[in-house]
Write a structure and sequence with these properties.
four-stranded antiparallel beta sheet, 385 residues, six-stranded mixed beta sheet, Alpha-Beta Plaits, alpha/beta, Aminopeptidase
Length: 385
């Protein structure tokens, strides 16, 4: 326990420094769509990690924000590395800090946009690497940290990088926000976003309404069909989240566009629902329907999470930390990695609440225990090679 105690004391003494790092990261606004800000932040991260890692590099992206890869070399370079996934793009637009600035309150919470999802996790990783350097600790296997710039918008440009590193890894740690109470996420629903375009026949609603066929009426039929597909007991949900159509109140609607969110616990249920939606047929003569499938993530299933969770719980228990597990309908890059069959542990971020909401915060007193836990997982968490 000498190493564990040394790390714990290090992090306890570094709490103010870790909070200062979090503040510096939060106060750099990085919406997913602002390439200049994302690239500037990537450079900042490289500068931050360069003195405490063996390699910190920018991964150039031609049509999006650049990503960052940080590597810490180990005693046994032939062993598969541990991969840690973070992202620095956020849902918050530039200017959000004016309404919800970084602040620490007497209620024991630290607030700020993207602090929970997931800039506090990047700060934790910075200080874990600092601790390893300052305490002259060398992990048994390489550590690869990825910080990507497009997780909130589907991980399109980072997907090849994520898959490449995951296939080389022994296991993957994902310090995304946990469930309430710091509960880890051992299952995530898979998701698929779908666009539905419905065409109708326009006509003047006062002069010759009988010659028209309303795309809105057709959409009403389809929405009810879609909503009826939801099976809460099975965990399958189909939500028609956006409906836009028509041209004027005195015109029989010539078109409607809808966006539909589909989620399920298993690949089979997700694929079945997507197929049913793709095969929707019209109810009104003269209307047309076109369905296209957009971005999505496969489910993160417990077959790839429970073995690594059980090992993590043993390590946490030795530290006096009780780890629990749960399921969530939200997705992360953990979904993408789990689908490859790579052992994945998700929800390792600092406990808090309010992701994507104005009350986004972390629980300040949980910052050090979580940092300590991740540092020990890096040393002790090995899935059978």
């Amino acid at each position: 326990m000498v190493r564990s105690e040394a790390l714990q004391q290090y992090f306890l003494q570094a709490e103010d420094a870790i909070l200062s790092s979090i503040e510096s990261l939060v106060e750099q606004e990085t919406p997913s769509t602002d390439v200049d800000r994302l690239d500037s932040f990537a450079k900042y991260l490289c500068t931050m990690f360069a003195p405490i890692a063996d390699q910190a590099e920018i991964i150039q992206v031609p049509n999006g924000g650049n990503h960052v890869r940080v590597q810490l070399h180990a005693k046994s370079p032939k062993l598969p590395p541990i991969l840690i996934l973070t992202h620095f793009d956020t849902v918050w637009p530039v200017g959000t800090l004016e309404q919800m600035p970084f602040r620490q309150d007497e209620d024991g919470k630290t607030y700020g946009p993207a602090i929970f999802d997931m800039k506090s996790s990047i700060a934790m990783m910075e200080h874990i690497f600092r601790a390893f350097k300052d305490l002259n600790l060398e992990p048994n296997r390489h550590v690869v940290l990825l910080a990507t710039a497009d997780e909130e918008v589907g991980s399109t440009t980072s997907m090849p990088l994520l898959e490449y590193e995951a296939k080389r890894a022994n296991c993957v740690l994902v310090p995304e926000p946990p469930l309430p109470g710091g509960v880890l996420k051992t299952a995530r629903k898979g998701s698929r976003m779908m666009d539905i375009h419905i065409g109708g026949i326009p006509a003047h609603s006062g002069l010759e309404i009988e010659k028209g066929v309303s795309a809105i009426e057709e959409a009403a039929h389809q929405i009810l069909i879609l909503q009826a597909m939801t099976d809460l007991e099975a965990g399958l949900t189909v939500n028609t989240g956006i409906v836009q159509g028509g041209t004027n109140s005195n015109v029989v609607a010539p078109h409607v566009d809808m966006q539909v969110d589909v989620r399920a616990w298993t690949r089979e249920d997700l694929a079945s629902a997507v197929t049913r939606i793709q095969n929707l047929s019209t109810k009104l003569q003269g209307t047309t329907i076109h369905v296209s499938s957009k971005r999505g993530r496969p489910p993160l299933e417990e077959s790839v999470t429970l073995p690594v969770f059980d090992k993590a719980r043993e390590i946490a228990s030795r530290l006096g930390i009780d780890l629990a597990r749960g399921r969530t309908g939200g997705g992360s890059d953990g979904n993408l990695i789990g689908a490859l069959g790579v052992p994945t542990l998700d929800g390792l971020g600092v406990p808090g609440a309010g992701a994507h909401a104005i009350h986004e915060h972390i629980e300040t007193d949980q910052l050090i225990p979580r940092t300590w836990l991740i540092s020990e997982l890096i040393f002790g968490l090995v899935v059978d090679d």
